[in-house]
C-alpha cells in the first residue's frame, strides 16, 4: 500500500479526498485525512475502507513526524502559512508534496534540497492559482511553437454562484473562505503591464478600475478587477517581453462599483479595532465613516458622498446589507472588516439548494505571418451541488490528479514547481477534460486589436 | 554641578540646547549633548564653557550606562522608538526624563516604577504634542472652574513657513523631518467625535475632509485635516463626555486638495518597493498610477482622473513638482513615498533666508448661566531665522523650561506625565510668554453655535 496524507479537510478538500478514495482500491493506496477538527475528517472519509481520519495539529511535532514520516506524498490544504512546516517535514521524510496555494519565497528556497532528494514540491495546483496556469500554458506553448508572437495576454478567473442561484442584488455568495473575500486585494498594490506601461493600482482604487469580459456559458459579460501582482507571471509564463499581461478576478456587473464604495468608506479595513462596536447600530457605524453632513437622512448623506442617486443599484446593494438599519452590531471589539463580514454572512448565504461556478477566460493576442490573431478560451464550470462545488472540484481535482501522476511517475522532474511545464499541464488538463472541465475556444483574425 | 544630558542634537534640539546652556553658568549646570553625529553635537554646544559634546549611540549599553548614570535629568530628542531604552536607564540610575514625543504604552507602563523612585518621566513636552495640551488645559480648567460646560473643543496646529517665505504654489517647505511629512496620517485611521457622533477617516480620504480655520497674525484662513486619533484626548483633557473634540493639522488653502491627489494616485505609499525605479522617467512613474487612458497627453489624463481642469491650481502644484517631466527617477529601489520625497526635497527647500512659523488655534464652545460662549485662542509664532526656527523654539523651550522646573522642584509630582496638569502648564506657559510665545484671545456670545 502507498500512503497518501491529506492535511486539511475543509470545503476545498472535499473533491480531492473523494477523487483519491475512489481510486484507492485499484491503486492500492491508503488515504489518511488529518484535520484539527477530527469530526470533519471523519465525515469526508465517510467510512471508506481505504481511508482513515485522524486528528492533526501542524504545530505538534510528534504528529507531523508520525504521519508525514509514513507518507509517500502529502497534500497540504492547511492555511497557506503552514505549508512550509509540512514541506520541511516532507524533505526530511522523503515525501512529495502538493498544495493549491501561491508559491512563497520560503518554499522556493527549498528547490535545491528537493532536487537533491529527488522530490517534487508542487504548488499552485488548484483552480486559481493552478488551472489558470495550466490552461494558459497550453496555448502559450502552442502559439509559440507555431511561430506566433504573443503581444497581449489577459487572464480572468472568478469563483461565483451559478446563474440559477443568483437571487441577491450583489450577484455573490460566500462559496469559499468569507474573510478572504472581504480582504481581497489588501495584500499589496496590484500591478500589471498594459501596452508596455506598468500600472500600479492602490487598494483604495482597486475596485474602481475594471475590465469588461465576455464569458461563455450564459454568464454574459462580467467585470474584472486586477488580481495581485501580474508582473512575475511574465517570466513564469515565458512571456518576458510581453507588452500586456493582466490577471484579473471576475465579478458580476455592479459588484465592483458597490465594493469600491465599501472600500472608500473604510468598511473593509482590517488594521484596527472599532472599540465598543456593540454600542453602535449599523446605521451609526456607517455614519461614522461619512464626512460630516447636516442631512439627517443617512441614505441621502451616503448617496451624496458616493455621488449616486438614492435609488441607484449601488444604494440598493448597500440597503440589502441593512447598513442603514437600527439593528445592533454584535461584536464588542472587531475590525471594520469583521463587522462587515457579519453583515455579509447574514445575506450572502450559500444555501443547500445553491450551486456555484468557476469561470475562467484567457485572451491571447499574437502575430503570426503578418497577421494579428485573437484567441479566446473560456470555462464556465458549474458545481454539482452544495458539497461538490465548482470550487472544490476545480481546486481538488488538479491536486488529486497531480498526486496520481507523481506516484505513477508521469510527473517526475524533482524540485519546487508550479504547473507551467508541459509534463504537468498536459496530462492534468487531459484528465480534467474527462471529468467535465472543458474550455471553449475561438480564434479570429483581429487586425488593429488594442489591448 | 548638576548634570543635564541631552540626547539627539538635531534641528528640533537647537533651542533646547541654547536655552539650557544660557542658564547653565548661573544655575551651576553641566550640559552634555550626545549624538550619533558628534560633529553635530559639537556645533550645537559651540565651545560653551558649561557644555560638552559626546558621541552617543543608544544601542551601546556601556555609553547609556555611563552618561545616563551620571545625569540628574535626561532630555531624549532621539527618534521616538528609542525613548523607552533611555527611560529604563533613567529609572535604573535615578534620573528624570523629558521627551517631546507622543506617550507610548511602553512608557506608560513605567508609571508605578517612576512613582516608587520619585522620578518624573515627562512626555509630549514640545509644540504638538506639548504646547497644544498646555494652552488648551489653561482654558479648559478656567472655563470649568467658572462653572462653564464645554460642549465643543477643536484644536489645530501647523508647522508652516512664514508668509514672507511662501514662494511656491504649495505654500509649504520642509522645516522638519521630511519623510514624516510624506507619511503624515499613515499611522492609522483618524478619529474624532463631532456632535456626539464618532468619525473614522481612512487614510485614503484624510486630506479630502478639511475644516476651515481663521488664524491670527496675517495668516488669514487655513485648512485643517484630522490629526490622528482625537478620542483619547477626551479623558486626557478631562472632557470625558464632550460631544465634539477634534484635533487637526493646519495647511495653507489648497495644500490638502493637492496632497489628497497624491494619496489617491498612490504616490505616498511606503509599503512596497518600486522595482527598477531608475528605469522610469517621472512622467512614466506617474503614468503607472493612472487608470488606462488613451489620451497620450499625461497632463490631460491626470486632470481627467482627478476631475479638474489642466489649468487648475491643483494641476499647477503637480506641475511644480516636475511630475510630468522626462527627468529620471534617481533611486534604484524605493517606495513610492521615497521617490516622491526626492521630488519634493528638490522644491520644498527651506532656504537660509527663510523663516518658519508655528500656528496654533483652539476653539472652545461652552454654556454658562444659560448663555453659549465661543472662545478662541490663537498663536502665530514666527521663527527667528533659519536655525532658530519656530519649530525648534516651540519644541525646545517647553522641554527646556520643564527641565529647569523639575530641577527646581516647581514640577515635582513623580510618575509618567504629559503636560495637562496645572503644576506643569501654568509655570511653563508663563515663561514661554516671556520668551515671546503669546496667544491672542477673544470670546463672544455665540447662540446657535454648531460645531
Secondary structure elements and their pairing?
Two copies of one chain form a homodimer.
Chain A: E1 2-7, H1 14-27, E2 29-35, H2 38-45, E3 51-55, H3 61-68, E4 73-76, H4 83-93, E5 96-99, H5 105-108, H6 111-117, E6 120-122, H7 131-145, E7 149-161, H8 178-183, E8 190-194, E9 197-201, E10 211-214, E11 221-226, H9 233-236, E12 244-251, H10 255-265, H11 282-287, H12 298-306, H13 313-320, H14 336-347, E13 356-368, E14 371-382, H15 390-407, E15 415-417, H16 422-434, E16 440-445
Parallel strand pairs in A: 1-2, 1-4, 2-3, 4-5, 5-6, 6-15, 7-12
Antiparallel strand pairs in A: 7-13, 8-9, 10-11, 11-12, 13-14, 14-16
Overview of this protein structure:
The structure is a homodimer of 451-residue chains. The radius of gyration of chain A is 23 Å and the shape is globular. In chain A, β4 (73-76), α4 (83-93) and β5 form a beta-alpha-beta unit. The mean pLDDT of chain A is 96. Chain A has a seven-stranded parallel beta sheet with strand order 3-2-1-4-5-6-15, sandwiched between helices. The first copy, chain A, has a domain at 2-123: Rossmann fold (3-Layer(aba) Sandwich). Chain A has helices at 14-27, 38-45, 61-68, 83-93, 105-108, 111-117, 131-145, 178-183, 233-236, 255-265, 282-287, 298-306, 313-320, 336-347, 390-407, 422-434, and strands at 2-7, 29-35, 51-55, 73-76, 96-99, 120-122, 149-161, 190-194, 197-201, 211-214, 221-226, 244-251, 356-368, 371-382, 415-417, 440-445. Chain A is built from 16 helices and 16 strands. In chain A, α1 (14-27) packs parallel to α15, α7 (131-145) packs across α16 and α10 packs across α13. Chain A starts with a strand and ends in a 6-residue tail after the last strand. Chain A is of the alpha/beta class and 451 residues long. In chain A, 34% of the residues lie in helices and 23% in strands. Chain A binds chain B through residues 188-189, 194-195, 197-202, 204-205, 208-209, 264-266, 269, 271-272, 274, 284, 287-289, 291-292, 336, and chain B through 188-189, 194-195, 197-202, 204-205, 208-209, 264-266, 269, 271-272, 274, 284, 287-289, 291-292, 336.
